[in-house]
Amino acid sequence: MSTRIEDVGDLYATEQRRLERRAARRVGAAHAADVVQDVFVALWTRARGHVGNPSAYLTRAIDYAAISHVRAERRRASLPQRITEEQYAAPAVLPDQVVAARQDTALLARTIAALPERTRHVFLLNRMHDCSYDEIAAGLGLSYSTVEREIARALLACRNALR
Q1: CA 128, CA 143: separation in Å to the nearest integer?
Q2: Cβ of 67: how many Cβ atoms within 10 Å?
Q3: What digits encode the pLDDT tens for the residues 3-61?
Q4: By CB atoms within 10 Å of each CB, which of 9, 93, 138, 153 scores lowest?
Q5: What are the helix and strand counts (H, E) for the chain?
Q6: Where are the domains of the chain?
């Protein structure tokens, strides 16, 4: 078999229907064309110039590709049955984790309450009310860079409190 594209195209044109029928016996008519196409791509990229009997090679390659396709479909279909409840359920929260989270939340609330009024106001508008920096700047009559600076101060205070 030569490496010319026309030769592979001719081979595809002459063998396609036969190979699709063969593949359809294993994978069904809906997937047969995909299996044949995959084999021709593999033939073109890997085996060009090395196949003595292209028809026999393609027949065997279709059989193997169809088997691989069926196996892959079975794996995909069985995946939901193989997943256990523990794999997709949220992990149980331990009591000490709950206590630690509550302490951190209380500490953050105290830290935010201790911020200067403008810093606290800007921070809460952004984080609690989802206001953008532009909206905060326009609403409070501040510059965009001032809003950035106030948010940075608040975040730094929160980070330092949690250390």
Answers
A1: 20
A2: 13
A3: 455 677 788 888 889 988 988 988 889 888 988 888 888 777 765 566 677 778 788 88
A4: 93
A5: 8, 0
A6: 5-85, 95-162
